[in-house]
Amino acid sequence: MDIEEFYDQDPRRRPSDEIEFGREWSENDRRLEVSWVADTGEVYVMAEPYSRRELSTESVTVEILGVIKGRDAIDSALAGWQEAMAKPNSLTWMRARVAGKSDSGN
Fold first, then answer.
1. DSSP H helices in 1-90
2. 12-47: per-residue pLDDT in tens?
3. Does residue 91 contact residue 26 with C-beta atoms inside 8 Å?
4. Which of 8, 30, 77, 80 is most buried when burial is the number of CB atoms within 10 A of its CB?
5. C-alpha 85: how far from its chain's center?
6. How far apart are CA 43 and CA 85, in angstroms?
């Protein structure tokens, strides 16, 4: 989904605090940004197009990796993220951490 669809799907997202967990995640030679939405507990990855000339709201895509409720829980789940982000295909680490801590049923 694009970034506007992401925010439009749940009215809690736009006004919520968001914590960024880095902008240098990588997967298949793409750079990605990972953030956490406090009010929903969603951990999401955002991808922008390679070319800044192609940048639009439709070209910025979002994938929800999972739901982790609470600031202490997200900090615990993603402890060590700065070091992990620097490695090749680092989003694999993020996917595994979120999957292992994600709240079931959300």
1. 3-9, 71-77, 81-85
2. 999 999 999 999 999 987 889 999 999 999 999 998
3. yes
4. 77
5. 12
6. 15
